[in-house]
Design goal:
Number of helices: 21
Number of strands: 0
Distance between the termini: 35 Å
Structural class: mainly alpha
Number of domains: 1
Order of helices and strands: HHHHHHHHHHHHHHHHHHHHH
Radius of gyration: 22 Å
């Protein structure tokens, strides 16, 4: 390991340790490497230009962020929740089931776990605690756990980022996430039912079945968005980036024209907030591009692949080992950092071991989403604490059971690749 690389890693750890944003730490550390190695700081500009402006797919990130923010600002979330209450609220642990089903539906619109938790999550927590049957910690915990499904079922911002670093088809990644997302929802609903029965949570007053058609009609335009996105991509009508633009436009028409719930001032606020969120992601992408150049210059991925080939490691052992590492890193790092900085190290090894990159990508993204609810640095736990003021201690006490069943679902995806690859293969994927 060269002195320049040691200096780079030291700077990143030092700056992150004193509380600097990880994007700034990565950028400064990478620039330090370029300066010490004699490559010249100007090279960073070329790497950024080549990476950011030649990747058309990156445009999908701000567009999905805008779509999610519009969904949260209008009455779309309320209508979806009323539909979910009528659909599954009548069963034991009804509001918990509503929470999970709402996340499953909303995940087909936002592509962001944070947008899910901060938007529809805040509303459902208030509904659960208002009934008096659920503790604040339980309502917040199941909300955080169900929000992890957001980036698994398409559209998915993390999958867009993974496609960027792995040169994998984003369309097949989106397809690969559908069944795992549904399985995550199913295990959360089963655990919610078990806990509701054990703790004696009451059954909500059922909505009359005659009311279900009316609520379905009210929510139907919003429910159409995932279908429009998937048909556009897999019907060959749009690229994933164009589908993101369609999603943003459809959300705008829905909120402003159809539901008449979006004012001009609110729309300006949405654009400003979306620009801030996109800039934060863009900074980290820029830093990761430079750092990935550093890693490639040091030939680390190829050295790692050669070392693992020498010890004759099996693909399954490698996958389990990487996922244990990612679960540990998820306790400390956010998902975007892991995807952009850590995963590129393992992609050459996956190719050498003939591990399918769609399977690896979906499993790794599920893993990083689980990391969003893993103490001590679970981003979703902090988001829900910020928007509801529920103490972190109460949320963490209740999160462990949901964390456990999600890890079991992750293990099933590792052991049985068909869970991820069945749908892509159905649509012609040959990996």
């Amino acid at each position: 390991m060269s002195i320049a690389l040691l200096a780079c890693l030291g700077l990143i750890l030092l700056l992150a340790g004193i509380g600097a944003p990880i994007a700034y730490a990565v950028i400064v550390g990478s620039l330090g490497y370029l300066a010490i190695s004699g490559a010249g700081i100007g090279l960073a500009g070329k790497v950024l230009m080549d990476g950011m402006y030649s990747s058309f797919i990156l445009l999908a990130v701000p567009l999905f962020i805008v779509a999610a923010n519009i969904m949260n600002a209008g009455t779309i979330s309320d209508r979806l929740l009323q539909f979910c209450v009528a659909l599954v609220g009548r069963f034991r642990g009804g509001m918990g089931h509503v929470n999970v089903v709402a996340s499953l539906i909303f995940s087909g619109m936002s592509g962001s776990a944070v947008a899910d938790a901060a938007g529809i999550g805040k509303i459902i927590i208030e509904m659960m605690t208002k009934s008096g049957q659920y503790t604040r910690g339980y309502a917040a915990a199941i909300t955080a756990a169900s929000a992890t499904i957001g980036p698994i079922i398409p559209p998915s911002i993390p999958m867009v980022l993974y496609a960027l670093i792995s040169n994998t088809s984003i369309g097949y990644l989106f397809l690969g996430g559908i069944l795992p997302g549904l399985i995550m929802g199913a295990v959360l609903m089963v655990m919610n039912y078990v806990l509701a029965s054990a703790r004696g949570f009451g059954i909500e007053e059922p909505v009359a079945l005659s009311e279900l058609p009316r609520r379905t009609v009210q929510a139907f335009p919003a429910l159409l968005m995932p279908a429009i996105l998937l048909y556009g991509i897999y019907g060959g009508l749009t690229t994933p980036t164009e589908a993101a633009a369609v999603a943003a436009l459809y959300a705008l028409i829905l909120a402003a024209v159809f539901y008449r719930a979006l004012t001009g001032g609110a729309f300006v606020d949405i654009l400003i907030e979306s620009a801030r969120s996109s800039a934060a992601v863009g900074l980290l992408i820029g830093g990761a591009l430079i750092l990935n150049y550093v890693v490639a210059s040091e030939n680390i991925p190829n050295l790692l692949a050669a070392r693992l080939s020498d010890i004759d490691i099996s693909p399954l052992t490698f996958l389990i080992g990487v996922n244990i590492l990612l679960l540990l890193l998820g306790c400390l790092l956010d998902a975007t950092t892991i995807i952009l900085v850590i995963l590129p190290l393992f992609i050459p090894v996956c190719r050498a071991l003939e591990i399918d990159l769609v399977h690896f990508g979906v499993v790794a993204i599920v893993n990083t989403m689980i990391g969003l609810i893993t103490p001590p640095y679970g981003v979703l736990l902090f988001v829900i604490n910020a928007v509801t003021r529920i103490p972190l201690g109460e949320i963490i006490r209740e999160i462990w059971v949901f964390l456990g069943v999600l890890i079991l679902a992750l293990l099933a995806m590792i052991l049985f690749p068909g869970i991820v690859l069945w749908l892509p293969r159905l649509f012609g994927y040959e990996g």
